[in-house]
Amino acid sequence: MILAGIEDEDKWLAEAIAGIQHNAFYMHRALDANNLRDALKCSALMLSELRTSKLSPHKYYDLYMRAFDELRKLEMFFKDESRHGVSIVDLYELVQHAGNILPRLYLLCTVGSVYIKSKEVPAKDVLKDLVEMCRGVQNPIRGLFLRSYLAQVSRDKLPDLGSEYEGGEDTVMDAVEFVLQNFTEMNKLWVRMQHQGPVRVREKLEKERSELRDLVGKNLHVLSQIEGVDLEIYRETVLPRVLEQVVNCDDELAQYYLMDCMIQVFPDEYHLQTLETLLGACPQLQQTVDLKTVLSRLMERLSNYAASSPDVLPEFLQVEAFAKLSSAIGKVIEAQVDMPIVAAVTLYVSLLTFTLHVHPERLDYVDQVLGACVKKLSGKPKLEDSRATKQIVALLSAPLEKYNDIVTALTLSNYPRVMDCLNDVTNKVMAMVVIQSIMKNNTCISTADKVEVLFELLKGLIKDLDGTAVDELDEEDFNEEQNSVARLIHMLYNDDSEEMLKIICTVKKHIMAGGPKRLPFTVPPLVFAALRLVRKLQVQDGNVGGEEDPATPKKIFQLLNETIEALSSVPSPELALRLYLLCAEAANDCDLEPVAFEFFTQAFILYEEEVADSKAQVTAIHLIIGALQRMNVFGVENRDTLTHKATGYSAKLLKKPDQCRAVYACSHLFWVDDQDGVKDGERVLLCLKRALRIANAAQQMANATRGTSGPVTLFVEILNKYLYFFEKGNPQITSTAIQGLVELITSEMQSDSTTPDPASDAFFASTIRYIQFQKQKGGLMGEKFGHIKV
């Protein structure tokens, strides 16, 4: 049925175009013969084709443009009186004798254009006559195109200031009155179109009507181009008359389009100075009008106007633009009870953008906008609409982008309240935006109060919200989020030690509520922040805080012990062990032996009770040995206890090669190459001999199970330890012992049961070259190495 209708329209259009072409042909013949009578007759017949009611606006436009092109040629003929021999005054009378009103009025407008150009009468008289005459056509489509033609032929002939058609002192008002009258009539015709067909095709009619909107809007464009329309005329005449039409037409499409058109065509300065009048019309419009877009575009234009020059900013203050816009948005939201949340939030985003452009220094305005948004969202369930949440993220991101400083946003009391309106997923997205802003701008958060507010903002990342289990989250996203929180902790700093301790305590309070999966990410940066404070206090020599709440290394270590203990119970024993050892080293530097011993004790307990994996045990024991070797705070008794534990655990590792390497590493615990370091040569030798026995046992075990004794790598490693302590002057390590070990390795390598291994061979060859190099070096060291024969 629809297809049949389209085919019919195409047929009717083709017939009408054929009619125009046929009559145009004879009109051209008459024009060439300078035959006015026939020219008028043929042109009237040609224009009669425009009387059709069968075509849609789109098809009618095609027909109209064909006729328009022919009328241009007719106008050229009318201008040349020598060709037709009739005065323009008589011609103006003559065309009014055409039989049908539509062709008559098209011809009248064409002659009227020439009449104005002749300047035989004032332009305003002819224009007034034409605009009144056009009332004779009340069919919406035919009337709209007729008046559009009138606007087209008259736009360069208005009695404007500086125009060749300028009249008396009220000349500008004459031009304005003509355009306004034409606009008013066209708008009435356009609105009436919606009632021209049956209800079942209402949607099609609205679409057709929308296609004709530019015909009406052109009048507003012409008004904006009139030179004489200054702010006074705009305020007193143009704006009230246009708004009267907009409000009274009670049509959603017309109201939306005309409001938007006004905002686009008239200067920003005029909008600013008449803001109250323009905004006052908004609540009077139909509830279904998309005022969100209209007001957003108005605020966007005003924002750009403010950004164009600093000189215009006082105007915004003078007219109280923010207060008026804020009030108008409130009234619109109140009036449109069915306005979707996304539309209301979009309005607040536009208002906030305007505020940040025009009044960036007025944080109270920014907070007021956020507060209004909270009021709109309060009492409603958390937002799930993706478009609305996207707008909320835009709303919250705007201050961050403008000020490049989260500290400024933290002073806004309504900022966290808006975030609370988001669902959990979007809350996390916004929290990530906040962290990224801090990182990008390298912002330092320097007080515990600000940290408290910040972590309240970020609670979606720091702890589970509303019972959402961590297991439900995507692991990759979760890791990225927690790594961001960890990076953030490094951005919290204050030079004042007492305040820094408060910051650390605040962070600890929040991250401890994060649950077992988050602690391995968030505890390490907190520990490092606390250790940084310890180092600083150590440089400043201890207690520098106030008397009531002093920040001392001892107090910080207590806090660290509690923090790491929570991590060890997660369980994440390997990480907790590393952190205990770091704290022990810091306590060593602060000369706090009991504290350091306690941290080592905790590390050993973790090793005993929690570290079960053999590879993890190897790593852990080497970490313990390395940390213990660097300790210089321990007395003899404590040091012996800890070294005994370390050597004992080393010998109990699962694999023989791991045992061997851990035991020879323990030799360093008895020989510290510092001025006051431990130098117990006998116990070093005992460790190395024990390592040799374990290496030998490993060879025998390999021989028994595989039939080959495996490579000699362990022996070469032990040889290197012997050489190290020999160089350092350990009297228990003799050249004879080294000589014997070299010979042992050589014989093992030549044995048939030993598995060839290029890496071991190269290692041993390098070690021999090193001995030869030391022998050749001469001096005291050369003399020492001279006794070793290789």
Structural description of this entry:
The structure is a single chain. With about 800 residues, this protein is mainly α. Helix content is about 70%, strand content about 0%. The chain is built from 40 helices and no strands. The chain has helices spanning about 1-30, 35-50, 55-80, 80-85, 90-95, 100-120, 125-135, 140-155, 170-190, 200-210, 215-225, 230-250, 250-265, 270-275, 275-280, 290-310, 315-320, 320-335, 340-360, 365-375, 385-405, 405-410, 415-420, 425-440, 450-455, 460, 475-490, 495-510, 520-540, 555-570, 575-590, 595-610, 615-630, 635-650, 655-665, 680-705, 715-725, 735-750, 760-775, 780-785. The longest helix is centred in the first third of the chain and has 31 residues, at about 1-30. The N and C termini lie far apart (about 105 Å).
- Give the overall form: elongated
Total number of helical segments? 40
Question: What is the helical fraction, as a range of percent?
Answer: over 70%
**Helical/strand content category:** mainly alpha
Portion in strands: under 5%
Note the main sheet.
none
**Oligomer designation:** single chain
Distance between the termini: 107 Å
Ranges where pLDDT stays below 50 over 5 or more residues in a row are 542-547
Q: How many beta-strand runs?
A: 0
Radius of gyration: 46 Å
Mean pLDDT: 88
